[in-house]
Amino acid sequence: MHQNSALKIEFIRKGESPSDLEFSDNVGQVNSDQISDCNSTGSIPDNQSGISDMEKSVDDYISNILKHHLWYHGMMFGGTVEKLLKWEHSYLVRRAIQRSSMKKTLCISVKIDGKVLNFQLTWNEDGWGSTKLVAKFPKMAQKRYAHIYQLLDAWSLSVNAITPVPRNRIVLHHSSITLGNKLGSGAFGEVYRAKYLPNGASESIEVAVKRAIGDAQRSTIQEFCHEAQVMGVLQHVNIVCLYGIASLEQPVMLVMELVTGGDLRLCREMLLNTFRDAHALNFEGAEINTHFRYMNNPIRFPNSLKFQKHLQTTHNISHRQLITFAADIASGMKHMAQRRVIHRDLAARNCLITNSLKIKISDFGLSHSGQEVIVKKLKKAPIRWLAPETLQKGIFNEKTDVWSYGVLLTEIINRCATDPLAPRTLKEVQEWIKESDHPHRIKNGEPKELADLVDICCDKNSITRPNFQTVRRRIRAILETANMLGPISGTLEMKKSEERKSSTSTDRKVSNTALMRKKSRDGKVKDRSTERKGGTQRRIVSHRRREIGPMKLPIGMSTPEKVSPQNMTSPATPPIPKT
């Protein structure tokens, strides 16, 4: 595994508790974040291999009855609950996980006097009940009910009004997902190619599914739910689309857009001039065109390392294509900034490429919903991509994402051959970022326009560092200039018309060989192109051309001076257009 790959960061989310439920000893009043040990029969252990018949009955009840009620939200954690319960006496039913014992339990979450309280539901042969709920509302009959909705009906009669909160549209039923072949696996989860049938649709679509393994840790499941919450507010052509999260039953699954072009480090489509010869490299039937990350750990496929080495030694990549990649990423990040989402792990490994060579930003496991978050302790983080203020003060915001974007540009310029600031160690990297005035400056980098943009995005002064709206405007101006002036440098892909012209001219040269000799009026054959005289070869000019003289150009026109390729320079970075 990559030593610099981003792992989990311990952080404090503003307005969100780090854990789940905590049941207190007073009359059912509960803090919204940690569940104590409880041996009630309603608790379901995470280890499914030791599940009892009673616990299996609870799972069956969820699958057959409970999931069909819109007020049941499936697996959910405290921070999300607080955002959903906005009104007094609004409630929902969800599944929670004990922090210490990792047991699963059902509970009712309700907002009372401005606070979110949680009441555990227990089940036995007599039915469903909640001791704490009855203690909080003494008008309720102390009895058990065959169904949870009957318990809720009895509760509604003891208060003035209760309002159920329906679950979000991104919560999917497991029955709508059909898993296909496994694409990869990690320590706590697996990635599958799958089919998803949207509600009301007649045909399924191909998707990628990240599925938690049966004994997945609580943090893993929380990561799934958090990633779904963040991705649920993002809808952009340059961001991987989230279809939903299947959290009503077990196991929890994320259903996302399937991107089969690899990332910026593993992309055979970006080798525009060598793609046709990829089969000659003997990548024997491996799915090298698919790359996912699970829990911030890369999932690789057979022979991908072999292909990666080939990619790093190939320089036939269009400069215009590289600028287009940078423009796509800037567009996606601008949308994220507008939606107040901080990515916090922007790097080439998290930029996937479609078959049409469009960038899709992925991996939102470390992302944060909000304008800024302060990290208490950086346990393991993508050091090479972090801004100085992050290393010094633990600050994450849009400006720190802009810094990471600048580092990503260095990866593009270097064709992802090495990690940023390699071969420095992580300790040396931290010192270099803190002490150097321009830690990521690239001299003689190509495309030069991107190299200039690196200095702007990696400005150590966060106040003068641009936001993504400015970055996107600048990169679009660079791309428009490149399109107007034609090829900047490097090898560009050939248009279909150019391919036809090239092949036609080649064929014409071959076919015209027989026409190189022309039969004269008296029947003799003369060589039209050249003739030997005195051991030298000279061009035969027609009698008409001799009489007319050299060809004259129209008034005002002149032949252009020949420019040596060595003297050609790339156009300067255009100024930012005024809005």
TrEMBL record:
It is an enzyme of class 2 (transferase). ATP binds at K210. Keywords: ATP-binding, Kinase, Nucleotide-binding, Transferase, Tyrosine-protein kinase. One of its GO terms (cellular component) is plasma membrane. Residues 490-579 are annotated as: Disordered. Pfam families: PK_Tyr_Ser-Thr. GO terms for biological process: cell differentiation; cell surface receptor protein tyrosine kinase signaling pathway. InterPro entries: Kinase-like_dom_sf, Non-receptor_tyrosine_kinases, Prot_kinase_dom, Protein_kinase_ATP_BS, Ser-Thr/Tyr_kinase_cat_dom, SH2, SH2_dom_sf, Tyr_kinase_AS. Residues 493-510, 522-534 have a biased composition (Basic and acidic residues). SMART domains: SH2 (SM00252), TyrKc (SM00219). It catalyses: L-tyrosyl-[protein] + ATP = O-phospho-L-tyrosyl-[protein] + ADP + H(+). Residues 177-479 form the Protein kinase domain. This is Tyrosine-protein kinase. It comes from Caenorhabditis briggsae.
